[in-house]
What does this fold into?
Amino acid sequence: MGTIEDDFTERVSLSNSIINCLYALPESGGDDNYYIYGYNGDSSNFVNTRESFKKCPLGYGKDFDLNKWISTLPLVVRKEIQTMKDNTDIFNISDLPIKYRDKFYACVPDANENYEYWSLEPITMDYLGVINPYDNENLNIYNPKDLNNIVPKK
It folds into this structure.
């Protein structure tokens, strides 16, 4: 089914550094340029997806099997979900009955690998520049373990 993630919560996804944003991207993306913005305001109301991960359904993560999880639900719910699935090409978390959908609130499968935070309110950010993480000639990462040490070549 692919990666299962909360697809119903409106948010602004953020991280604590540029490098962690890059780690969250697919391994290959072609010629994609990404705009870099910074936020220097109050983050006390941000949702920490690492903390939320602890409340996700048992077994949740990158290899989570939604169909297997659905099979553990009461029969009446499974029948309701099956009817929904029969009427759509793609079935998402947001299609689940609300009681079950909400179990996936702020669930991000790679939350323990990336420092993703969510602002549930609009925020104002400062434009910092553009980066293409797939262009190795114009990007120099000196030490991928150092979360703040990413600088473009001059």
Remarks:
- Residues 12-132 form one domain.
- The chain has one domain: 12-132.
